[in-house]
Design goal:
single chain; 536 residues; alpha+beta; 7-stranded antiparallel β-sheet
Length: 536
């Protein structure tokens, strides 16, 4: 075993701003658990670390390793390495992950190789030279103030997003003299399209760039062979010295970093409160790389930094999920506080109601996976066309879609919303035609649909029970739009437009006469696109 230096400071040298020392203990130390003597040693080493209680490390020969069961739990220290854990079992008692060891320590902690340590309060009793012992007090030896803690208190909390928080962090590190050449923060997301958000800073541009990593990235060879994949999978952190004659380049990315002139690389896991593992990584070009002082100061603030990033990530997740399930505009209204039953507003809007034709027979003819794929492909055609033309999809009702195009000025002679809705209808037809060509090539049946367009005054807001709400539109025009769509099959056309909407677009539409809607006593005139009129 590599012994600590006579001064008690590990081989990394003196670290005025963050102290890490390993000293021999001049006492016999014994620990008991479940009626068994777990450890009894006069070869104890004591690790002193800034603002932490001293920790006893015991040689394994003096420890009842036979009473311990190794677990998959890992923690990481950027200057000590990855800690492996054991669960202690004795006398019918169990202390989960109560014992740890740095089996492959970094240079700064080489002195504790083949030693183990215990969480003090996990054991039943401790003795020093035969007398009952209390847990050592936190080391109050004065050290230089950690500027990163001051940054947390004065600046970090002001950040309005993850991007601005990372920008502020980098400025703090640079101003404190930390030799950072590049930094990246990876935050995993709860998003239907994204695996993670990556915030990257490089000294060449001195700007934070944002990369939205798709789910496919997590399956790529580049990611699977990266330190990030290992960390996300719970294998601890990664620290690699990249200078010197024979650096350990066990990840392809490290070879690239070394080619760029980097001398040191560290990637550290950051855990959110739910246990999710995220990552912060840094590289340096400075000879010798990062010091214990550099990493120790950063390590002290990681829990608080992680919570700040978690707050920003939760904000983004809430916005994403509400936008995904309610629609962008509706989701924002909920975030803005429209959350009580009855909250809402009266508005004039164009109502869109569309439906997939013959869905029952299709679901019986296709496998469940094939039918679900068909349904999703149909919704892609619908939703993309609606959203790209300023509409808002409010809900999916089985294989039907309810959407609105808000009308800014109901008295306008040519309301833009009506024109956008007709453009969206034509876009849907074009996309479904292309989809059907692809389905034909695969021997699948074509899909058909109906769209009913109407306009009128509706209430847009929360309806439901006190503890289960839905944000939607209610009112006679919404019901009539669904019944207009019902007549698409009867009249043999995929698109029907009410006279209330068509009155501003008679030159672009063709009348199909007056018809009675189900449940409505009076007849209304219905219109369709000219290119569809010949089919009726």
């Amino acid at each position: 075993m590599k012994q600590p230096s006579p001064s008690g400071t590990p081989s990394g040298g003196s670290h005025a701003g963050y102290r890490l020392t390993l000293d021999p203990c001049d006492r016999q130390v014994r620990g008991e658990f479940g009626g068994a003597r777990i450890v009894d040693s006069d070869r104890v080493l004591v690790m002193h670390e800034t603002r932490l209680a001293p920790v006893y490390y015991f040689p394994r020969d003096d420890v009842r390793m036979d009473l311990m069961e190794k677990t998959g739990h890992r923690t990481h220290c950027p200057f000590k390495g990855n800690a492996s854990y054991w669960t202690l079992k004795a006398g019918g008692k169990e202390a989960a992950n109560a014992v740890w060891s740095y089996e492959e320590p970094y240079d700064e902690a080489e002195g504790v190789r083949d030693y183990v340590a215990f969480y003090w309060d996990a054991l039943d009793a401790w003795f020093e030279d035969g007398a009952a012992a209390q847990q050592p007090a936190v080391d109050d030896t004065p050290d230089a103030e950690n500027p990163f803690i001051a940054w947390l208190v004065t600046d970090a909390w002001k950040a309005s997003s993850s991007e601005t928080l990372v920008e502020s962090l980098v400025r703090c590190l640079i101003e404190a003299g930390m030799p950072v050449a590049r930094l990246r923060v990876l935050i995993r997301t709860l998003h239907p399209q994204l695996f993670a958000m990556a915030y990257s800073w490089h000294e060449d541009t001195r700007e934070v760039t944002v990369w939205r990593a798709p789910h496919a990235m997590a399956l790529s060879e580049q990611y699977q062979d990266s330190p990030f994949a290992a960390i996300v999978n719970g294998e601890g952190g990664v620290r690699r010295r990249l200078d010197g004659p024979d650096p350990k380049l066990d990840y392809p990315a490290l070879q690239d970093f070394r080619a760029e002139g980097m001398t040191d690389y560290v990637a550290v896991p950051m855990r959110f409160s739910d246990g999710q593992i995220n990552i912060i990584s840094m590289s340096s070009r400075t000879p010798g790389g990062f010091t214990v002082e550099d990493l120790g100061r950063l390590y002290e603030i990681l829990p608080s930094l992680s919570r700040l990033l978690e707050v920003q990530a939760l904000k983004m997740t809430a916005s994403t999920l509400l936008g995904t399930y309610l629609g962008k505009n509706t989701g924002q209204r909920v975030l803005d506080g429209l959350v009580r039953r009855g909250d809402g507003e009266s508005m004039h809007a164009l109502i869109w109601f569309s439906d997939l034709r013959d869905s029952t027979s299709m679901s019986e003819a296709l496998s469940s996976d094939a039918y679900l794929a068909t349904l999703n492909a149909f919704f892609d055609c619908m939703v993309g066309s609606i959203v790209e033309n300023g509409g808002e999809v409010l809900k999916f009702i089985g294989d039907a879609v309810l959407a609105i195009f808000p009308v800014a000025d109901p008295d306008d002679a040519d309301p833009a919303a009506c024109g956008r809705a007709l453009t969206a209808v034509r876009a849907v037809r074009s996309r479904v035609q292309e989809l059907n060509r692809q389905r034909s090539d695969r021997g699948l049946p074509a899909i058909e649909f109906g769209v009913g367009l109407h306009r009128g005054d509706v209430t847009y807001g929360n309806v439901g029970s006190t503890d289960r709400l839905d944000f939607t539109v209610v009112g006679t025009p919404a019901n009539e739009a669904a019944r207009i769509q019902d007549l698409c099959k009867v009249l043999g056309t995929p698109v029907l437009v009410s006279a209330r909407l068509a009155e501003r677009f008679t030159a672009e539409l063709v009348s199909l006469g007056r018809h009675v809607l189900r449940g409505v006593d009076t007849e209304i005139e219905l219109w369709t696109l000219p290119e569809l009129a010949e089919r009726t």
